[in-house]
Amino acid sequence: MTGNEDFASLFGEFEKKQGMTSKKEPSTGDKVTGTVVSIQGDDIFIDLGSKTEGIVEREELTDDDGNLTVEVGDSIEIVVSGKDESSGTLMLGSRHARRMHGIDELRQAFNDQRPVEGRVTGTIKGGLEVEMSNLRAFCPASQIDINYVEDLEAFIGERLAFLITKVEGGRHPNLVVSRRALLEEEQQARATEIRAHLEVGAVMQGKVSSLKEFGAFIDLGGVEGMVHISELAFGRVEHPQDILSVGQQVEVSVLRIEKTDNPRHPERIALSIRALERDPWRDVLTDYPVGTQVQGTVSRVEPFGAFIELAPGIDGLAHISELEAGRRINHPEEVVSVGDQVQARVISVDMEKHRIGLSLNKKHGGEESAVPEDNVADYAKPKWSPGTLGDLLKDSRKKQK
Hints:
The chain has 401 residues and is an alpha+beta fold.
C-alpha cells in the first residue's frame, strides 16, 4: 500500500467516525437525552453532547413537595422547547415552551394556537393585566376561568398559561389572552377519559359543583352528574346543604346513564352516595325484633299516623289507632308533634317493604303490660296493617269527606 493510499484510507476512516459522532442539532419538539452538569438557582444546565448545552427550569424537575428530583451527574430525557438565539442555548421542558422571547414568537404562538406563560400584574376595568415577554396583555374577566370569578385580585402575582386570542398593532401590539380556552380544552380531554370508564355501577370520585333543593350536582372531571336528595343518605335529608358543601370531594356510585340530544350535555347521569353506605335495614330484625320497646323521634305527622325515626334511615309508623290518647282522636297532632321524643313498642316488621309498625298504647308496651314471650309472635301478624302510603292517603280522604 502506497503512502497516498494510506493517507486516503486513514482520512476516509476519520470522516466515517466524524459522521458517526457529529449529530444534527436537535429541533423544537425533539426528545433528547443529556447529563446534568450544573444547578444554579432556578436553572439547571444539561450537557446534550456535541458541544450542545440546554437549560431547564428547576420547577420542571421537582416533585409535588417541591423537592429536586435530579442532581449533578444524573442522566435525563427531556423535550426541546426552543432556542435562545443570542446564546445558542437550547431551552428544555414544557415550561420553557410557554415562555416566549419577543413579539415574533408571540405572533407565532398566536398563529399556532400554542399556550404561552404570563404573569398577572394587576386588575383593570373588565379584567386582568398580564405581562408576557415584556409586553402587556389583557385577559377579560370572563376568560380567566370556566366559572364566574368574584375576586379577580386573587390572581395577581400568579404565573399562568394563556392562549393569545387577538394580536393588533406593530412592535408593541395590543394582546388579548384567554385562560378559559385552555381550561376548557383540558376539561374536554378529562371528560373523554371519564366517559371511557363511565358505566352503571362504577364508583367514582367527584366534587360538589352546586346544591339545589332537589339534589346535588357532582363534577366527575369534565362530566357532571346529579345525586337526587333521596340518594344522599339513608336518613331523611331536608336539604342537600345540611350534609354537603360546594367544593367538597365525594365518592359516588353511577345509577343510570341516559343519552340526550344536547351536545353540551350528551348524557344525564344519576349518581348515589347512599348506595356506598351500609344499609341500616340489614340489621333491623336483630336490632328491632317484634315486642322490643324502642325510643325515637317523631319525624312526620300525617292524618293516618305518626312516623317515628328510630335511627338514621329507619322510620317506623304508629297508626292513629296505636297512639296512646285514652280517647278517640281525629288527628295524630292532638297527641304528638314533630320533634317529640317518644317510647314505642315494635308490633310488626316487614323487611321486604322496609316497614316497621309501632304502638304507643300501653296495652302494647310498658312494664305493667309487658308481652309474654309466648305471645310475642302474635305481634308479627297484627290485625292492622299499615298498607301503602297511597292506600292510607285514600282512606284519610274518604274519612274527611
